[in-house]
Amino acid sequence: MSSLLNPSVPVTMESSWAGLASNTGLLRLERDTLVLEFETKDDVLKMLRSDVKSVAVPLAEVETCRWKPGWFGGKIELAVRSMSLLDGIVGAAQGSVMFGVARKDRDKASGFVANLELALAHRVVRAAEESGRS
Length: 134
Hints:
Shape: globular
Strand order of the largest sheet: 1-2-3-4
Strand content: 35-45%
Structural class: alpha+beta
CATH class: Mainly Beta
Number of helices: 1
Number of strands: 7
Order of helices and strands: EEEEEEEH
């Protein structure tokens, strides 16, 4: 997919280290995979930063992805079929995680979720066509 048609979306996640660190990242689609890259930065000294971590979730494992707009931005809610897919992501619980989106990135986030829903629907159609052939 073209980066113009499917931009990466800057996101935030829950704080970690008892609120002393923030977690930021990028969500993007790569073919049939949802990719999250993120890092943790300390909010006290502003000197410590983790390595960039990457989590790849196959679209076949995505249950739902919803855009929830708000006054000052919005949230992307992602639910997957297995808790282990979100292992290591701060704020993930029971196969679900919420990503914060800044106001300036609302259009990107809305478009991202629409593209993801379209990819999920396309995958279902392909599966139905293949089962009809056999």
